[in-house]
Amino acid sequence: MIKNMTKTGSPFDPESILVTAAQMRCIEQELFAQGLPVAALMEKVAGKIAHRLIELIPQGQKIGLLVGPGHNGADTLVVARELWQKGYGTTIYHPFQHAKPLTLAHKNYAHYLGIPFCENLPESNPCDVWIDGLFGLGLERELSPELADLIHTINTWHSTVISIDLPSGLHTDTGQPQPIAIRAHRTLCLGLWKLGLWQDVAQDYVGILERVDFDIPAQAITQGIHTSPPMTRLTSRAMLRALPIPRPPVIHKYQCGHLLLVCGSQTYPGAAVLAALGARASGVGMLTIAVPESLKNTITLAVPEAVILPCPETDAGTIAALPVALTGYDFIAIGPGLTRSAQGIVQTVFSTNLPILCDADALNILAPWSGQRPGFTVLTPHEGEWQRLFPQLDLTQRVQAAQQAAQIAHAVVVLKGARTIIALPDGALAVNPASTPGLARGGSGDVLTGLLGGLLAQGVKQNRDLTALVQAGVWWHAQTGLWLAKQYGELSVHPQQLTNDLATVLGQLIQAVAPGKK
Ligand SMILES: NC(=O)C1=CN([C@@H]2O[C@H](COP(=O)(O)OP(=O)(O)OC[C@H]3O[C@@H](n4cnc5c(N)ncnc54)[C@H](OP(=O)(O)O)[C@@H]3O)[C@@H](O)[C@H]2O)[C@@H](O)CC1
Ligand SMILES: Nc1ncnc2c1ncn2[C@@H]1O[C@H](COP(=O)(O)OP(=O)(O)O)[C@@H](O)[C@H]1O
Ligand SMILES: [K+]
């Protein structure tokens, strides 16, 4: 029996929770309803922001503070007061006629303290650092031309900008600029991570992302998010609960899973090699690779431990048929390097009720997607494959698109990208928060397919949480790319190197989180 798809990540590890604006409001309302005064929370939050800014900004720097009409602005007024009283040269820019009562109160007090105010931005940049407190999760509509102009001016000044909660102009949930947004060097997100900050489109705006925790009690978080499927951000702590897959002293290779990889063609022999090497890194016990018979020697040389299934091939050097029944394997991964003329075998694998992963040309052959299959299914499209597979699902809202696809296909959908999204049929969502553009090259995905296939074969055999393993595999693959990029530069992140270093990097990741653990 394959373990149900369950959610992973500690339910109350604030680092792993993603919230929408509505959920954050609900959580805040719960705090206020239970007696926490709004002004008290603001004082606590703004105090923590000011403390962090004092660590980041050397004394003597001229600081401009953009203050909006809502509580994002109010937070920033409190920050202005704290910085002013610590001796920083601060100037407040508040280009609004109206403001919320608490914002107005803090504005009046800042006036009383003698903090300089300006209505509009000067011609040239008067400040060394800008604190962006125009809008946070309350941005409800497109920015007016005047505000868009102000944000454009700040962006053209190229000075250090630190945004409070979100870069102003960014949609809290989708991460889309409305239609422009502050390009922050750093974003101090308040309380819980906002979903929009982790979308591909937001990466040009958020800069370095930090979360300012303010001790939201677990019961308030539950109150705010329990009605929707969980949305999580993959954290080392959560991922290392699934990896490495434990290996007791007394175990034999078949207990470590048997993966069948169906891949390769004369045109793309390397995709089969990279997928096989990815599977090797996963620790899978047995690896069988179905390839066109003319590739048999190539694969054997590259991956001597693999059992080769030489398949009859077409004149074009693609797999014409699978020579054996698809039994005896714990998991099947199909797609890398097949070419689009391998329809027969893709349909053969797809029409079984076996647990499978479809990638690359298997996705192109199944496009456009229709129907569902009974077995556990993982789809790993990049945006190009997506447009063929789910043309009706608009990719400007990657989160919603991935959630809809997972429900349509009743599959785990891995929408690859700078911030890969993993969506489940029940709507649960996870985002991989860190990766490197060094991975943006052909072959990276082939490695991921092999890695995930190997992990899932082990997971099926040992009745583990399969969606946890999909998340952990995506995270592991990205972390290895990131490690290589940090150590040797982005150009060092080529697929072969990735397969060489997956295992050792996992060891480093474990050491970083739990020194002494093997
Ligand atoms: N847990 C937390 O996160 C905590 C959050 N806190 C802070 O509060 C922030 C949320 O505060 P908020 O609700 O006042 O929203 P915020 O973004 O400040 O302003 C929205 C205001 O702007 C207006 N407006 C909207 N769109 C507009 C547009 N396009 N162009 C022009 N105006 C526009 C709209 O007024 P309207 O014009 O619609 O009447 C609305 O009043 C949050 O981000 C965080 O910084 C802290 O208190 C501590 C805990
Ligand atoms: N800009 C980027 N930043 C971080 N990771 C990226 C970026 N572009 C692609 N990736 C990652 O690299 C891999 C690319 O996979 P894919 O596009 O399938 O490659 P291929 O199909 O050519 O092997 C995915 O894991 C994806 O998440
Ligand atoms: K802001």
Automatic annotation (TrEMBL):
Co-factor remark: Binds 1 potassium ion per subunit.
Binding residues annotated for K(+), in chain numbering: N72, D132, S168
Positions bound to (6S)-NADPHX: 71-75, 136-142, 165, 271, 337, 382, 446
UniProt domain YjeF N-terminal: residue ranges: 24-222
A GO biological process held by the record: nicotinamide nucleotide metabolic process
A matching Pfam family: YjeF_N
Known function: Catalyzes the dehydration of the S-form of NAD(P)HX at the expense of ADP, which is converted to AMP. Together with NAD(P)HX epimerase, which catalyzes the epimerization of the S- and R-forms, the enzyme allows the repair of both epimers of NAD(P)HX, a damaged form of NAD(P)H that is a result of enzymatic or heat-dependent hydration. Catalyzes the epimerization of the S- and R-forms of NAD(P)HX, a damaged form of NAD(P)H that is a result of enzymatic or heat-dependent hydration. This is a prerequisite for the S-specific NAD(P)H-hydrate dehydratase to allow the repair of both epimers of NAD(P)HX.
Protein's UniProt name: Bifunctional NAD(P)H-hydrate repair enzyme
Species of provenance: Gloeomargarita lithophora Alchichica-D10
Encoding gene, per UniProt annotation: nnrE
